[in-house]
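Morning!

As promised:
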Amino acid sequence: MVEPVVVVHGGAWAVPEELWDESLQGVKAAARRGYGVLTAGGSSVDAAEASVVCLEDNPVFDAGTGSVLTFDEQVEMDAIIIDGTTMEAGAVGAIRNVLNPVKVARLVMEKTDHIMLVGDGANKFAAAHGVQEVDPEVLITSLARQTLAKYKKYTSTVYHLFNKTEKPETSGHE
Amino acid sequence: TVGCVVVDREGHTSCATSTGGITAKMPGRVGDTPIVGAGGFADDQVGAVSTTGHGEAIMKACLARHITSVMGTGESVKSSIQNGLAHMESRIKGFGGAIAVSCKGEVGTHFSTPRMTWAYIQAGKLHYGIHPN
């Protein structure tokens, strides 16, 4: 027998000091949510989904509500879920207007023969399986708008939010 | 980006990762998160991983699969994550972080970015952090 564990993260980046406390409270709540599902008899997949839904619903994190914005001020989200027992996987890419992309990823895993659906196809699939679309504004926070205003260039975002060494000559992309 | 890895009492593992991407990304750009072996990986024979950071770098490094491959050699979970992140930094100049759990319940977290928020519960006890070390 194994001692059950639920581990969560809220993203690796240059988290500013004003978000430290909220971010820590958020990951602690998400770990508790998943652990509660696990100890109540839920599967490891149930627990992983529950923790990530908790994080997606927390606007302090870049996922679900609170997602950052594309260059044209839209929200496009990606998610994946994998069952290590069967190695079945489900994923969505560039999905819009849903609260919990990880739930759609799980539907892809369980209801299709595919691994990933993207864009309009992912949204149509979600709608066909009863996932309610939300107004795009529901997902957008003032912080996301402020951050986009500050970083209007992808390479600047990468440098300022992830790097800790000298500025790279080129990212090779975008 | 957010993520979760789990192992249950029977050693069954799972991972999940979700993201809004990166600010000012090109519309239609998809990063590492939904890619098996990059944004996440789970195999009951080894364990589960969820990654976060610069998506293009993580995809090039196949970071989640890299970490589980090292875990499979018997390295500790934390050392395996450090190995994967060091490889990504040295080869691609990319930065990020990861959480992982082995099928035996060993936990690891590590990051090469300035910070990463993480938390885990094992045996009913909550652990958490945000700063390096």
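The CA atoms of residues 11 and 61 of chain A lie 8 Å apart.

Hope this helps with the figure draft.
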